Amino acid sequence: MAKETEAEFNARMAQIRETGPKQSRISKAQTSRTNPLTSAKQGFGATFAPQPEKAPVVSMPIENLSDEEAKEAEAKGLSGFAEAEEKAEQTYLAIIERRIEQGLAHYPFPDKITLGFVRLGDDNKPYNPNIKEVLRLVSGWFVKKDNKFHDVNNLQTTYQAQDLKQVIVHRIKVVFPKLNLSNKDLKDLFLLLLDPPIANANPEENVAVWSGRTTNLPNKTQKISFKDGVATVNLWEYPAYRRVEGEKATAFDEFLAYVIPDNAERDVFLNWLAWSLKHEEQKPRWAVMLYSQKQGTGKTVLTELVKDLFGVANTSRINGVRQLVARFNKEVLRGFNSPVQHAGYLL
What we know:
Layout: H1 6-19, H2 28-32, H3 36-42, E1 48-50, H4 59-62, H5 67-76, H6 78-102, E2 117-119, H7 131-139, E3 142-145, E4 148-151, E5 154-159, H8 161-175, H9 183-194, E6 208-215, E7 224-227, E8 230-234, H10 251-259, H11 263-278, E9 288-289, H12 299-310, E10 316-317, H13 322-325, H14 330-333, E11 340-342, E12 345-346
Parallel strand pairs: 3-6, 6-8, 10-11
Antiparallel strand pairs: 1-2, 3-4, 4-5, 7-8, 9-12, 11-12
Helix pairs in contact: 5-6
């Protein structure tokens, strides 16, 4: 057998990185090993699709092999490729874990090391919106006041125009990783979003002028509403657990029976909780007070569970009753129609 030249070897290594090594070069243990990220992707099958399309167990880790590592693996034969791919996979997972901690797990990096969930369209292919859809979506992320831009999910966060452009590009790439926008596309996008021609102003394409007011409108998914040409921001956030189908279980009933052993009192609490969840836009006329003669009876755990039911972002906690019963308690209660937690009280 003729000795392989350097050029031929480099060409073969490039082919391996593109398609993965031949099956005969992979040990049985490798082919049966399950990538822990693969099972996570499969859970989103109906709405999201994994990217890239090639099997991550073989093709993605091998891309992390340098030419030197690949040549060393080739020299060792089957065991060498097994060791090299194991090292590459560890590197791959280390990068993914780091990016998860950084909040960058879904960012479409050029190296394709990403969790890779993309939105699918009705044709079951990656969804690419038109420019009007992008404008409508992005214009709902921010409001502006006094030449500063505010994030509607955190109004305390403000941006200058140049910083905002960088944030918008990042978020668009995460939401639509398959969408390719040229520099001209982005320039036109930012012109409409941030500095639109007055005669062609469109509230669904331009970042709105904020009145400085906020409101709390449960079950309204739109964060911005308009009156007299200026925007009001809805502080209510849809609890994430409501997007998934629930299951019947007895754990909560058993826990509640422990915290409130009296059947009649427990029914009163459940009726109050059910009414409050069903009519989140209304404030109940009375409150529940949890009281016990000793600590460790589950009051705090119960109030934490109630907070989760209404959404942590839609509840608040204060220390002491003085602020709650004070004459000027508007700031304490402003914007929160859901229960306010205080020690053993659910208000």
